Amino acid sequence: MATHLGTAVQVASHQDAHHHDHHHKESFWTKYIFSQDHKTIAKQFLLTGFTAGFIGILLSGIFRLQLAYPDVSFPFLETILGKWAPEGRLDPNFYMALVTMHGTILVFWLLTGGLSGTFANLLIPLQLGARDMASPFLNMLSFHFFFWGTVVLFASFFVETGPAAAGWTVYPPLSALPQSMPGSGLGMILWIIALVLFVVGVLMGGLNYITTVLNMRTRGMSPMRMPLVVWALFTVAVLGLLSFPPAVAAFILLLFDHSLGTSFYLSDIYIAGQALPQQGGNVLLYLHLFWFLGHPEVYIVLLPALGIASELISTHARKPIFGYKVMVYSILGIAFVSFIVWAHHMFVSGMNPLLGSIFTATTLLVAIPSAMKIFNYIFTLWKGRIHLNTPMLFAIGTVSFFISGGLTGFFLGVAPMDIPLHNTYFVVGHFHLVMGVSAVFAMFGGTYHWFPRLWGRMMNERLGYIHFWLTFIGANLVFFPMYYMGFGGVPRRYYAFTEFAFTSKWQDLNVFITIAAIVTILGQLIFIYNFFYSMFYGKKAPRNPWKATTLEWSAPVEHLHGNWPGKLPVVHRWAYEYSKPGAPADFIPQYISDEDIARGVRWWEEDFDPSTVIDREEPTEGEKLAVAPETAPSPALSINQKPEPSLPEAGQ
Amino acid sequence: MATSLTRTQVRLHPKELILWLYLATTAMLFAGFSSAYLVQRFSEYWKTFSIPSLFWLNTAILLLSSVTWHWGYQGHRRGNPWQLQLGLMATLSLGVIFLIGQVMGWQMLVKQGFFLAGNHKAVSYFYVLTGLHAVHLVAGLIAVGYWTYKALRYQVDAQGSLGLRLAGIFWHALDGLWVYLIVFLQVNQLL
Amino acid sequence: MTCMRCLPVLGALGVVWAQIGAAARARASELAMQQAKAAAAIDWGGVLWAIIWIETIAILLLSARLIQLVVRYTGYDPFASWDRDRANMRLWMAVGAVGIALAIWGAFKYAPFTLPESASLHGRDIDSLRSFTLSFTFPAFVLVHALLFYMIWRYYNGKSQRAAYELTHHGLERGALIAISIPVFIIAAWGIYVWSKPVHGQAPSEGQRSLEIEVVAEQFQWRARYPGADGKLGRYHYTLIGGENVLGLDFTDPKAQDDILPTLKEIHLPVGALVTIHVRSKDVLHSLFLPHFRTHIYAVPGQKNQVMFVPTITTKEMRRKLGDPEFDYELACNQLCGGAHYNMRMKVVVETWEEYQQWLSQQKPAYTPPAAVTSLKPNLNL
């Protein structure tokens, strides 16, 4: 049944037909595991992403401990890591594995799969007024590929030689030569398999997101009425579609080099007492292919976060988003520019210096749309009525981190300034603030905001405040000092800073960062507790707890395949109708028409049932026509039985 | 087709749109490989080799399979199930023949001493690209096989004709991809 | 009811007591374990740590539950009278002010820890560009945050009763666009200018000495090679590596026969000379990072990379300037290359031309004729 929800023809037919009468009973498996319902899939992505992400953050706690106390033995490490921490001292190779897995899990699993997967699945159909994704079946597959990718990735912790350890960028030849480090053995192969499964999952999701946005918007939902988060998720899906495949090409070639003796990236190598036969390979080729994904990937992480921040800031400041068109063009501008900046990751790789100049110019262009977005967030708050509840705190946190992190892009994006800063802690601080913490905060904010939409209950506000302030202060204390270390030239991915005079000066600061990090990590337990507690025992949420305008709050929260019990909502206004002068409430939902207002519909009341408005809508002439072929018996075009000789001609 | 609900909607069936977008990702995948190929083509270690002419015969076979598919589909649109059955069976057989031909072609290369492993990158890329195309083609064969089965049981109706059409688009795209690949690979051996 | 009001306090005391108890028990068992450890095969230290962890988590959960129960059954809620928006606004103000103050304080506190002034010619250009950029980004960081905090302070729910219906403001948008575009264009233009000044392909100026050396990276050390009397580096091939010939020099090339591999793992550079470093790697990616010279280039297997710079400050002079008699220039690896990546150190000494010549004359050529014959046979493993 679900698959045929997806067709445009039927979307029209749902307008008046009560389609869900034959709602057959679902078993546990079809309801929770092999669900084709976008809301359930969103929950699956959220839980998988958060679980992976929390493990990833715990890994960082372990390696931070090593950085702060390189000479101290921690016996509990041996208890949990076994041979990777003999005598309680972390093995340097395993340190690299921890760093690699931390990066991979957080960049790909939490902030790409978790963030986009959750909110695109939840919001695109609900905010656009669609019954489900264009292809619910593909959507289900998308999660399952993602999930099995997760399983393979975590399985690599249990192989003899340990997980991949060549950094999340897995640069060859280190990643291609098992003799160069233990992590480049089976762990590396599993890493590539996990990534390919992940990419397939993400692309299946992306195909669905794009198609749903292009094809399945409800009546009246013109592009310029769409919420910004949908714009962002749509753009991100396009980015993923164009940038992930070349990375897969790079990984496939890497796998051939790793296991099958080709020489795409390998050349002139003498390792472990042997000269390898490979010649003529080109390492920079891998770097180019990888960063052609790698840089858009940054925006694949960031844009949904900024989209969520737009929703949250506008809703909780009770004010229309400032400069909506500029925001849309900024999203598109950032997306376009993200494809022509990748080589700023390679300024000192020995590529042609001319490219350095070109990519400096293109890279700094990103600053313009990004700054416009920041200004628009601030101007949205201007003259607003800012409700400082948990989602809003996290949204403002996102903006704050985006400022602190974004400004330092000026140093790294300019080729000469990048020379002393490349691969130092300056980079670590920069990307953690601008795309790491900032996106995580948007994800937290979005979770607090849409939790009532997902589970029908509110999360605990007070635990939310504690969680926010602890995390906000903690994350700043962890990552901001890294800028100072970067100006000291401290290189990243160092197992210990004791070997160099210019790095060992920073030991005290490293201890401070580690303590801040561990406190912040433990603070996330508050969120986990709040999340699961509220899921079962939280306060029951009203239909539209935040008094928001978008369509997702007009659908009942009960598990309902098809989202709306009756007709689909029809959109009469844009997504940010807050505090309109003359309106009877400080928000007007998108499905309320001017006639409804004149009729005296009281949508702001807590027990208001939106379907009383939605089901009043009459189908347009065009929709009536569209329904016709559906209900009429199949025309002669069908050949589902052996035809008679005199079959009438049929055309399409 | 459905009358669109808003004027701005794309006038394509959602599943067809998904297919086209999927083909775009495949195009980007092979664009990634092609750019890698072009980067390495200009290195000092680059050597050329001559592609066995069997691959050109395979090209003709695959092109023919597109023609038979189209012929069968035209029959279906005119309501002629036998033509559809014949066309699909021909397409399926030609596809299988193409795959067998590819394997034979690879064997010929191996006999000439051109292996995947080693420093002859033109050969390595040839194996990788044609192999990846073969993997895609197997997926295409499964789709065509499914519709052949349905057609032989007279189960292709108006509803099904969408799926049939999409399978056709996919098949033609694989055909186009192959033509691109063989021309790309051949041109780079000649220049 | 006053008694009821004590309950949260009692709860908090209970938590503290439990913590103290846990710590005391942990300490006591630690002492006991230390004695038992010598005989026991079980890793008591690990068990102890596990107990402490579990206990900490349990205490946290229990105390959360305790506070919750107290709130639920007494009806007493110390935060009920708090105005959510005003409280959070005040926290924003406090955290914002302290945060910005800390950021500025940190900049002064850690300034002496950052890299000293550039010891190379082109590094000075980089440093002045960096100072300029910093003089834009740091105030921008403070100002934009101040603007953000101002909005929170001025328009939080309570102080602000009704939001304005403000869709956009062309003047503001245009102003923002100009405000960001100006620094973008200045920094980009300046950056491209500094970059295109011949950092990578400069020629020696009149009367300037020039020197070409090679630095080779491998897991996990650096090796340097100096040209002999002919001033030229000889050929090499990676298949020739083996035995004594650690760099794979091709001794059939007369230019290679006088090449010098310093016995001590140090790089010596004459001050004021145009130094070209040829960088290559024997195995995986490495990166030649000379932070004090603002010089950085990847060592890529199969690719000939080079980097040029003019050292301007000798080690002795730098020691005097920094007041640190232990100071040395250091060469670090800055591209993940394996387990001991953090350990790839080499000392760099900048000295006067005379000192440099004297040091060089003490080094011996790498070439020893009889060994060369055997090492010419490639040990290519096919």
CATH homologous superfamily assignment of the largest domain in chain C: Cupredoxins -  blue copper proteins
| CATH level 1 class label of the largest domain in chain A | Mainly Alpha
- Our estimate of the beta-strand percent of chain A is under 5%
Question: For the terminal residues of chain C, how far apart are their CA atoms?
Answer: 88 Å
Helix count of chain C equals: 9
Give the tags:
heterotrimer, B: 191 residues, mainly alpha, Four Helix Bundle (Hemerythrin (Met), subunit A), elongated, C: 382 residues, alpha+beta, Immunoglobulin-like, 3 domains, 4-stranded mixed sheet, 9 helices, 9 strands, flat
State the gist of this model.
The complex is a heterotrimer of chains A (652), B (191) and C (382). Chain A is an all-alpha fold. Chain A is 60% helix and 1% strand.
Q: Could you explain how this protein is built, in words?
A:
The complex is a heterotrimer of chains A (652), B (191) and C (382). Chain A has 652 residues and is an all-alpha fold. Chain A has two domains: 501 residues, Cytochrome c oxidase-like, subunit I domain (Cytochrome C Oxidase, Chain A, Up-down Bundle); 77 residues, no CATH class. Chain A is built from 22 helices and two strands. In chain A, a hairpin with a 2-residue loop joins strand 1 and strand 2. The longest helix of chain A has 37 residues. The radius of gyration of chain A is 26 Å and the shape is globular. Chain A starts with 7 loop residues before the first helix and ends in a 21-residue tail after the last helix. The N terminus and C terminus of chain A are likely disordered. Chain B has five helices and no strands. In chain B, helix 1 runs antiparallel to helix 4, helix 1 packs parallel to helix 5 and helix 3 runs antiparallel to helix 4. Chain C has 382 residues and is α+β, with helices and mostly antiparallel strands. Chain C folds into three domains: 73 residues; 84 residues; 166 residues, Immunoglobulin-like (Sandwich). Chain C is built from nine helices and nine strands. Chain C has a five-stranded mixed sheet with strand order 3-9-8-5-6, covered by helices on one side. In chain C, strands 2-1-4-7 form a four-stranded mixed sheet, with no helix packed on it. In chain C, strand 5 and strand 6 form a beta hairpin. In chain C, helix 1 packs antiparallel against helix 2, helix 3 runs antiparallel to helix 4 and helix 4 runs antiparallel to helix 5. The longest helix of chain C has 36 residues. Chain C starts with a helix and ends in a 7-residue tail after the last helix. In chain C, 31% of the residues are buried. The chains are: A mainly alpha (652), B mainly alpha (191), C alpha+beta (382).
